[in-house]
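Class, look over these structure tokens:
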Amino acid sequence: MAKNKKTSTIGAALGRMFGMKKVERNFMEEEALQSPGRVAASNFFHRPTAVFGLVVFLAIFLSVMIGPYFMPIDLGHADSNLANIAPGYNMMSIPSQMRKEGIADITAGQTYGMGLSEAGKIYTWGYTKVSNTIDLKNVPQELTTGEIDVEHMAAGNDHAVAIDADNNFYFWGNDRLFQSKYEQNADLMRALKLGNLEVKQLEAGNQFTVLLDTDGNVYLWGNPSTTDLDCRESEREVEGMDHKPRKYQGNVEKVAVTSNAYIALLKDGTVAYTGYQGDSPLNSNMPKELMNGSIKVVDIAASSQAVAAVDETGKVWIWGVATHGEKVVPEMSSKPVKIYGGRFHFTALLENGDVISWGDNMYGQTEVPASVHNAEVVDLFCGGYQNYVITADGDVDTWGLRGFLCGTDEQGRDLLARIINGGKTTMTVGGIAVVISTIIGVVLGGLAGYFGGNIDIVLSRVAEVLGGMPFLPFALILSSIIPKEVTVTQRTYIIMCVLGVLSWVGTFRLVRAQIFSQREQEYVTAAKALGVSEATILRKHIIPNVMSVLLVSITLEFATCMLTESSLSYLGFGITAPTPTWGNMLNTCNDSIVIQQYWWRWVFPAAIFGLCTVCINLMGDGLRDALDPKSNGR
């Protein structure tokens, strides 16, 4: 019976919150609600705005307190390739029209994908925006109609390239750093002029492109300032160098492209670094067994700064800069026959048809779906943070980075994860500061209000002096003198104490005034007559009677402390990055370009912060009205 009454009360409260009319009660039901606690609860839940504030605040509070356990953040993580990505989950959303036409080829960039259908049309998907004026979705019109016989295509970080059957080149995307200037490679121009160029492999990296022909010749062009390539005529010797790229021409079987270099698999099964920079980790760390021919390599692939090779026995060799777990090769059910590289992970196709991935798994790049294990794999594509598998029945399975619900910030960090973790910091700082200020205010206000006299005069003058100081500038001064060598955790504790010590004046005045009124009541006189000590009267009788008013003050002060902490962080004097708070997240958006072009970076933190503080104020107003005896009359 009691359970049904409780359920009915909750249901009625929720109904009133969403605009249903007030429930009429008979005399006996009203009499059952005459205890102070029940009257206050009834009054509170009869106010839709107060209930709305309570429900939304609890939802936000639970999200930011529990969410970090499910969405932890690495404070040292930053990835410029994912900077300022707009909200959305479309990075692996292959167009339905391309699925209908059949998939002939897929190549993946860092944040987008590009596919060639069986009808000869090129499609793009994902986050394709390079700048405010450059977008990789703007594929040349002739490549989207199916009239051009496209044979090869490649997706780079900021540009894309395609080649048709007649060796015509097509470029789109960023062209400011020689990405489309294949004419600067004299060997390539000579081969095109003679008409004997037959393309075998086409790769696009970070502002450069690599082409391998069937004769084993490699041609490169693009930005030489960020890439280990020399685009001068191959007949001209490079001063102080042995011209290694020329040395390996005609003997290359496959190339693997990292972010700023490339490795070649030669026709004799050895691996060579064919660039100019001999001190590159890709060269200095290369296993000697793969270079001297004692082990024959059957396939190679590259991640951002590491290279993987599979030898004829099925052993996987990893070298280079592998800081994301690329060297931790898992056990395999059979011998790998093909290997593919993403930005920080590798994927291998095994002899028995299984697919396995390893390396960085921040975005699920290594979590191969069960549907892939149970299917017959026809083709496999890997790049960036994505993996694509085409099965025998024509389906496409994908795994990896799908996108970001709230986008990313200027360092490529997930904005939703930082909002949740930052909310925990902001609410914790606000909550602890309120506890400190409440304890100080209640103790000092109780002493001043109950004993009066000189104690009241001294404490009131101290409160007046502190209250007369401009709060935010004074807090900025105290925060600025914190030594730079303190850790972020220590700085957080200090800011909690600073906010608490500076925020007790309002509570002090409220408690002092209430106790002035309460100490003259009959129950205090009766307690004194019974010999109850002054401390007991204050602690057990007077303070509990002012708690109803104090509770409202604490609720509103919580929102104020959160705003103050965020103001300090916004102005650069609070908790500093990379530790997130709602305030310092907004601080990074204090720029006209960010406000205009990257709206999600300030809209989402501002919206959640604004909603939270509004809901706290709605709760405080509801509590104040519910606990006010003058509002409870019938």
The first strand starts at residue 103 and ends at 108. DSSP finds 20 helices and 21 strands in the chain. The longest helix spans residues 415-451. The two ends are 28 Å apart (CA to CA).
